[in-house]
Write a structure and sequence with these properties.
Helix content: over 70%
Protein name: HAUS augmin-like complex subunit 2
InterPro entries: HAUS2, HAUS2_metazoa
Strand content: under 5%
Structural class: mainly alpha
Largest sheet: none
GO cellular component, one term: mitotic spindle microtubule
Order of helices and strands: HHHHHHH
Length: 219
């Protein structure tokens, strides 16, 4: 009995240890989940950084991309070569600038010939229209006076238009009157002819009567 009683506390301790181990299993599970969440968050942060870098590369590809950089380097190199040639020929260029440019041909590279043709066309067009442009610039201070003159001329034109309309109406009325007169002239002529014929027929009657009276008296 003593041995059995001595064993019961040990069994109780073992049961407590087993319960603690079960509880520790749940703690380990939560810890593993927390570790997974931390790893996922770190991966998301890494992906966001990669996306941001790709966006930055897209926005600055004309500055950072090797193709564009090569083009810019080539352009800069050509400009540098041109400046070196200018510096080497500085004295001759200065002497040529001091001399008047008359009946001289300037050498131009073949690449720029089409641009020079277009430039010459623009220059010719500008020279042709230069006088008109200068006249326009000269007339700018007189714009207000010209506008007043134009308004006065428009008012006079309105008056002339109204007078012309009245004159046209009078002409139309005169034409109608003339047509009426011309249409009544044949009637008047016919009436005059009729009256004239009547006078011719009636006029011999008194003469015959006088003759008859004279014959009677003689008798």
């Amino acid at each position: 009995m003593a041995s059995i009683r001595g064993c019961t506390p040990w069994r109780q301790k073992m049961a407590d240890m087993l319960n603690i181990s079960k509880k520790s299993d749940s703690c380990f599970v939560n810890f593993s989940r927390l570790q997974q969440i931390t790893d996922i968050q770190a991966e998301i942060y890494q992906k966001n950084l990669e996306i941001e870098l790709l966006r930055l590369e897209k926005d600055t590809e004309d500055v950072v991309h090797p193709y564009f950089l090569a083009q810019k380097c080539h352009t800069l190199q050509s400009m540098n070569n041109h400046l070196e040639v200018v510096l080497k020929e500085k004295r001759s260029l200065r002497q040529r600038l001091l001399k008047p440019m008359c009946q001289e041909n300037l050498p131009i590279e073949a690449v720029y010939h089409r641009y020079m043709v277009h430039l010459l066309e623009l220059a010719v067009t500008f020279i042709e229209r230069l006088e008109n442009h200068l006249e326009t610039i000269r007339n700018i201070p007189h714009v207000d006076a010209n506008l007043k003159k134009m308004s006065m001329a428009l008012a006079k034109m309105d008056i002339l238009v109204t007078e012309t309309e009245e004159l046209a109406e009078n002409i139309l009325k005169w034409r109608e009157q003339q047509e009426e007169v011309s249409s009544s002239i044949p009637k008047i002529i016919a009436e005059e002819n009729f009256l004239h014929n009547c006078d011719v027929i009636i006029s011999p009657l008194p003469f015959t009567s006088k003759v008859s009276v004279q014959t009677i008296n003689t008798k």
